[in-house]
Amino acid sequence: MKITWRRQTIRSKHPFHVARGGASLEGNETQRVIVRIECGGITGLGEATPSPYYGQSCDSAEATLAEAAPLLGDDPFRVVPVMDRLLDRFGEQTSALAAVDAALHDWVGKRLSVPVWRLLGLNPESTPHTSYTIGLTEPEELPARLADAQEFQSLKLKVGTDRDEETLTVVRKHAPRVGLRVDANGAWSPEEAPGRIEALSRFNLELVEQPIAAGQLEALSEIRRHSPVPIIADEDCVRVADVARLVGVVDGVNVKLAKCGGIREALTTVRVAHRLGLKVMLGCMIETSLGISAAAQLASLADYVDLDGHLLLADDPFAGLKLAAGVVKPSHEPGLGVVERTTDANRIRWISPSE
């Protein structure tokens, strides 16, 4: 197998802010790392979405890919042993590993001429609708943001400021029947969270995501015990090993490929969560259709879907995902089913491990 990669600049339609560091886009521009695996004349692609919150960057992703190259072997079909080796060695760099995992699945699907969801024995026709995310926004700017979201059945609003109630009041005025999910990204203290949740619950919320900072499970359990709204853990649930300790603490977990290390790890996490009685939200970062497509292969397994990262972009460099009645549907084409929009192959420079 030959692995190469390049950086991809992406631009969001609007600045995107959340209540904690490591996830906001200052301005409208950021970078992702696109990974390419070649073998036998077939190419598989994946996307790394490094998060500073988890100690990741494009530099660390590229360094990981260079070190991982000798561990890939020569058979792309051996996805499980390859990813086990990489997770054992580079477990903190899950976004880079998720890109490798996606590229391997893309390669296998193309080699067998089947979409990845079929390879996994899944049925995308049962996929729940996705929410559409609106970052921290001044209330007066909300009507324009809501205009982008008219076809969605649910909105996910980033909260964690003193203007949260004002924000939701404006949203309910312009979208009285839409489902509302709120995500505090750990911004509230354990003492204030119950009051904040109680105050926002009058807006008929579907769920509250990560109300307090990660690592306070006893406090989180107490918050959930008094909450009139289901509580979903995000920052508290990174890898599959985190799921069991959240039983009885929250109502569900947010599974993201970039957090856990790829399709196979996400599939295991979803199954463990469901068997332990937890709901599953399948989430994402701000990513292109390439990264979202990898997650969309599993979306039919989720109770809640939040796969809108590509929809927040001004110029998605990949195509292939469908949006129908608020549902993000993976392609029926082989592999991940996405293609690059550009036809100018000569301007794209891929980096190899030796560079």
The helix fraction, in percent, is: 25-40%
Average of per-residue pLDDT values: 94
Per the principal axes of the C-alpha atoms, what is the gross shape?
globular
Oligomer: single chain
CATH level 3 topology of the largest domain: TIM Barrel
CATH class label of the largest domain = Alpha Beta
Taking all Cα atoms into account, the compactness measure Rg is 20 Å
Number of strands: 15
Question: Which helices and strands occur, and which strands form pairs?
Answer:
Blueprint: E1 2-11, E2 29-39, E3 42-48, H1 58-68, H2 79-89, H3 94-112, H4 116-119, E4 131-134, H5 142-147, E5 154-158, H6 164-174, E6 179-183, H7 193-200, E7 205-209, H8 217-226, E8 231-233, E9 252-255, H9 257-260, H10 263-275, E10 279-282, H11 289-296, E11 304-305, E12 318-319, E13 322-324, E14 327-329, E15 339-340
Parallel strand pairs: 4-5, 5-6, 6-7, 7-8, 8-9, 9-10, 10-11
Antiparallel strand pairs: 1-2, 2-3, 12-15, 13-14
3D structure, described in words:
This protein has helices spanning 58-68, 79-89, 94-112, 116-119, 142-147, 164-174, 193-200, 217-226, 257-260, 263-275, 289-296, and strands spanning 2-11, 29-39, 42-48, 131-134, 154-158, 179-183, 205-209, 231-233, 252-255, 279-282, 304-305, 318-319, 322-324, 327-329, 339-340. It is an alpha/beta fold and 355 residues long. It has 2 domains: 2-118, Enolase-like, N-terminal domain (Enolase-like, domain 1); 122-339, Enolase-like C-terminal domain (TIM Barrel). The strands form 4 sheets. Strands 4-5-6-7-8-9-10-11 form an 8-stranded parallel sheet. It has a 3-stranded antiparallel sheet with strand order 1-2-3. Strands 12-15 form a two-stranded antiparallel ribbon. α1 (58-68) crosses α3 (94-112) and α2 runs antiparallel to α3 (94-112). The longest helix has 19 residues, at 94-112. The radius of gyration is 20 Å and the shape is globular. The mean pLDDT is 94.
